[in-house]
Design a protein that fits this description.
Bound molecules: zinc ion
Low-confidence stretches: none
Number of strands: 13
Order of helices and strands: EEEEEEEHEEHEHEEE
Helix content: 10-25%
Largest sheet: 7 strands, mixed, barrel
Strand content: 25-35%
Shape: globular
């Protein structure tokens, strides 16, 4: 028997002044029309990088001729996913991954100590990142999607280029900026839909998971 729980939001709230990747345009959400100021309606204006908060990287982000975000295959953004708890405090490495049964077509969401960093105001440079060797390992396995709980899959001023390129060249879609703090490792239903920004290299997304647990039916 499969028992399903309720949906859990694993995207971070987009708001003015929230943490952003150094060099990217900060998030600003302002009212063009504001009923509190006597306007007849509320209308907001959004100014931000396409890589703000929870977002998806398309191959075009690092590959000149890569696919853009409007071509994201929906089966990479929805279906069964595994939330994997990472113990390493510095990086997601091959040693931890090799002890897991990772299969072709897997959607993997890595829960690291990063999920606690969302409480900090400023950008944290030493977030847990995917090592280049681990990226190669995942590419070799043929996984479909990799998600991580901070603003980049690669290490800041370390292996940004290598980690991204290795995954994207292997047609692995990358979800960044997840908040997995209220999600335990396990099997989940997963939905994540990046905005259909035509020709863009990435887009903000809403992402949710719902626990799936297998139980022997009670006799
Ligand atoms: Zn990105």
């Amino acid at each position: 028997m499969t028992v399903e729980g309720s949906w859990i939001d694993i995207s971070v709230p987009l708001k003015t002044g929230m943490v952003h990747y150094p060099g990217d345009t900060p998030v600003r959400i302002e009212r063009d029309s504001d009923m509190a100021k006597g306007d007849p309606v509320n209308v907001s204006r959004i100014i931000m990088s396409a890589h703000s908060g929870t977002h998806v990287d398309a191959p075009l982000h690092f590959l000149e001729k890569g696919n853009s975000i409007d071509h994201v295959p929906f089966d990479a953004m929805g279906g069964r996913a595994r939330v994997i708890g990472i113990r390493d405090q510095e990086s997601i490495g091959c040693q931890e991954l090799e002890s897991l049964r990772i299969d072709s077509g897997d959607i993997l969401l890595f829960k690291t100590r990063n999920s606690t960093l969302w409480h900090q105001d400023g950008f944290c440079r030493d977030y847990v990142h995917l090592s280049t060797a681990a990226a190669v390992f995942l590419a070799t396995k043929g996984v479909k999607t990799v998600g991580i709980d901070y603003l980049s899959v690669g290490g800041y001023e370390r292996n940004e280029m290598e980690a991204h390129r290795t995954l994207l060249e292997a047609s692995i879609w990358i979800v960044e900026g997840l908040d997995l703090s209220s999600v335990e490792p396990g099997i989940y239903d997963f939905m994540c839909l990046p905005l259909r920004l035509e020709g863009a290299e990435g887009a903000p997304a809403r992402a949710v998971v719902r626990p799936v647990s297998s139980r022997t039916p009670a006799l």
